[in-house]
Structures are given as C-alpha cells and as structure tokens.
Amino acid sequence: MDNFSPDVIIIGAGLAGMTAAHEAILRGRRVLMIDQEGAQSLGGQAFWSLGGLFMVDSPEQRRLGIRDSAELAWSDWQGSAQFDRADDKNPRFWAEKFVEFASGDMRAWLYSLGMRWFPVVGWAERGGALAGGHGNTVPRFHITWGTGTGVVKPFVDLMVRYAADGRLRLAFRHRAAGLIVENGAVKGVNGDVLEDTTVARGISTSRKVVGTFQYRAEAVIVTSGGIGGNHALVRKHWPARLGKAPKTMVAGVPDYVDGRMHGIAVKSGAALINQDRMWHYCEGLQNYDPIWPNHGIRVLPGPSSMWFDARGDRMEAPFMPGFDTLGTLKRILSVGEHSWFILTQKIIEKEFALSGSEQNPDLTKGGWREVLSARLGKGATPAVEAFKEKGADFIVANDLETLVSRMNALTPDAPVILDHIRAQIQARDLQLGNRFCKDAQITAIHGARSYKGDKLIRTAKPHKILDAANGPLIAVRLNVITRKSLGGLHTDIEGRVLTPSGAVLDGLFAAGEVSGFGGGGYHGYNALEGTFLGGCLFSGRIAGRNA
C-alpha cells in the first residue's frame, strides 16, 4: 500500500461507503476503500437509481401546497413498518432518527453538496387502506436532478479529491474473503485481488484471482449492499407470508449484489436479523437491451392502468398501481407468477415511466427543455416508446380480441378468457358516466388528479378503455423484479455491528443495504420509497462519524 496506513477500511464503494468515507475523512481519519468491481463502478447501485429521496416538509412540497410534518411521516412509517419483533428495537430507533433527519437537516446538507431536485414531488406507495396502515399520506418522493447519477456525483467528486490529496486510498478489484478477528475484535480484512477489467459499469466482470491481500485498521465498515442479484439467496430467505417464491424473476440490480459479505461477517461473529424482509416489485419488464444478466426494468405506473392477475381477474383495492407493493405482490403470487396491465395509448403517454438513470435521460443529463419535451410532448417518453416497440412484454392491438389472443400466445400456460376480460373493462368504463362512482380505482384517479403534480405529468384524464378514440389498446406482462434487502447486519445507533447475543463486535461497523439501511432493517416490513438512497446516506453518515 505504499506505506499508506489506514485508520478505517471500508468494504464497498457505493453510496453508503462513500458517505462513510467522507464523514470519516472530515474527522481526520485515513481511509482505505476496497471494492470487487473496477473504478468505473464507483458509486455502486445508486448510480442506476431514479434518484428519489424521501424528504419531509420540504420547500418543493410546500410550493405544491403539500402539508407535511415529522409527526405525519412518523405515523406513516410506523403503519408501514409494523414492527413486531424483539429484534426491532434498534431498527425502530434508526427509523425514528431517520424521519427526524429527513424532516431536519437532510435537504440542507445535500444542497450544500450540490444536489438539486425536480420541483414536482412524486407520490409513491400510497397505501390505499386505513390511515394507520401502510403508505405515504402525501407525496414525499423527491427526484434529484441527474437521477441516481446526480446523487452519486458529489460523493464521487469528493472521493477523487480525497484520493488526490492522500487521505483516501481506493483499491478496486479487491474482493473481501474474510475479516481479521483478534481477541474478539475486528482488526482488518483479507481477500483476493481480481484481474483488471475495462468492461462498462454494470456488465458482469471476471472473477479470475491474480493475487491476495491483507489490510489492517482500527475499524472496518461494511457497505457491500444486499442480495438482490443473487436469486438463489433471495429464494432461500423468501418470506412465506408473501406466498411461494417465483420460479422466474428478473433482476433489478447487477449480479455483483450477491450478499457475500453477509456470510463473511457472520463467520466473524456478526448477527444477521430480518433476512426474510425484502422489497421486490411486481412491475418488472425484461430489458430488451440488457446491461447485466437477466436485467429487468421496473415500470413506474400512474393510477389508471387496469391490473389483472394471471387468471385474468381484475385486482381489487388496494392492489392498484402505485399503492401497496408487497400487498400486491402477495395478491399476484396467490394465483400465479405474472400479472397484466391493460391500458390505452392515452394512458401510456401520460402515466408510464421507467425506473433508472439510463431510462430517464431527460432528468439524468438534460434540463427543463428536455423534460418538457419528453413528458408533455406527443407520445410517451422515448424510453417507454422503445420498450413498447421492442420489449418482449408489450402487446399493442387495435381491438380487444386481438389483444387477448396475443396475451395468450405470450403466456400459453396461463390463458385468460376474452369475455371475462371484456366484461370487467366494460363494467369499469360504465363508471365514467358520472362525477361519482363506486369503483375504487376511478375514485383513486380523481384523488390523484386533485394533486397538481399528478394532474400535470402523472395522471391521464379519465376515459373509457374500450373507446377506439383512446387507442390503440396495450397489454403489458409484468414480472416480479428483485430489488432490495430490508434486513441485514444488526447494528446499534452508532452503526456498530452486534453479535447474536447483542454485544458489540468491536471494530466492525455497517451501513447501507447490508445493514438493512440501519439497525438491521429500519423499514420493518414495508418501505415508503426514497428511503433506500436516504438510508444509505443516513447510515453511512453515522458509521463514518463513529468508526
């Protein structure tokens, strides 16, 4: 290491790791950061995200007439988390402190680092049940200009600066294999040096070993991410409460999100908790232009698409687009593995968006002119239109008979019945004859359009699906897409990793998804969106200030 003697070693060069490094360096600590991927992957999974951040009572909310508060946000969090285990003591404490952070100095801190936010606040995870249950009462999803790249960039710039002035050493293609434990305390890390790689970010890299390493420090921070790219591990810990794990899923994260460090930490005495809590989406598409293996893209739907299960039954409230992710996942898996959206061209133009920095170039690399052209111009966004044309899961037809026939050709083992589909759509269309109705989804559409942000760019004017003037008709087969671990290494409020007995494992800290975004699972059973990146920032900040 050229006589570089670190005080802190960080395993994982993602958002949580960079945040931890920044905070540790501000304290005068010398930091070594290792990662099994190449330098081109600095920033990890966050780079690929939409860049949404959960913030409370922000200027963006207030400009839109949204009244929010820490009290309301904490009520929503508790109703969503549903903490009910003895191990939830620390996660609950982390959650409470995060809500304070999200309603306190979070925005000012990130603003000082250069982040800015799209002025229309998104309303994700609306819940759709009782006030004390799951969901966001108000819009809180703040999309960063630049999307995930805009969240990552300030920290990447800091890492480059710190490396240049000698306070940080970056060791890429260094894959941890074990922690050095002496007298019950973690003193360092050992592992394999992998051969260099020049492949683009996200593409699978070689695992050929060309050497070994061993580094020692006063403290080690694990920020290696979750298990979403390792489907065998996802299935191993799949929660029975959601139904049987699907045989087929698409991957919402690169394959380096493999969960290796979970097992390595456990062998060194660490405790893992809440491994059966996870966050996977129902609206996954096969990427027609994949970057990583089995690459999936998530649809971010508005409220108007009709959602049918694999049998062709329309799903009841609250299992509607944008309301209750895990509740809807359980509902889908109760009868099959996939589901369907049926919608019109007018709906797809106004309401469809795709998650990820690469699917939103107007927000990632553009500005107001690009956003207005992509979001309010003729047709859907270019990314959505490309999927409609090339994606294996999209079907477009001028009439329902042809649409259903092609749906059944795509899923011959789970055909739907034309007359059954038609009757359900006709019943829904009949509800549009009055200003009032009994259809919960149409009521929800009216509710969404009462929020000026949704009315402007996210919700189509209610119209009849079977009216040819609104066509063509579109069906979208939706797959389960893996994404986040909600459990992980058990940590105390200082980010110190705990043992199975609850004692502190001296010298070891954890942050980000590997720690369930704080405490070993600060989401509880359900996430409120924007709390993944936020959790990486918050837990990384805590670990870096204490390691």
UniProtKB/TrEMBL annotation:
The keyword Lipid metabolism does not apply. It comes from the Bacteria. Residues 7-533 form the FAD-dependent oxidoreductase 2 FAD-binding domain. Pfam families: FAD_binding_2 (PF00890). Its cofactor is FAD. InterPro entries: FAD-dep_OxRdtase_2_FAD-bd, FAD/NAD-bd_sf, KsdD_DH, Succ_DH/fumarate_Rdtase_cat_sf. GO terms for molecular function: oxidoreductase activity, acting on the CH-CH group of donors. The keyword Mitochondrion does not apply. Keywords: Flavoprotein, Oxidoreductase. This is FAD-dependent oxidoreductase 2 FAD-binding domain-containing protein. It comes from Sulfitobacter guttiformis.
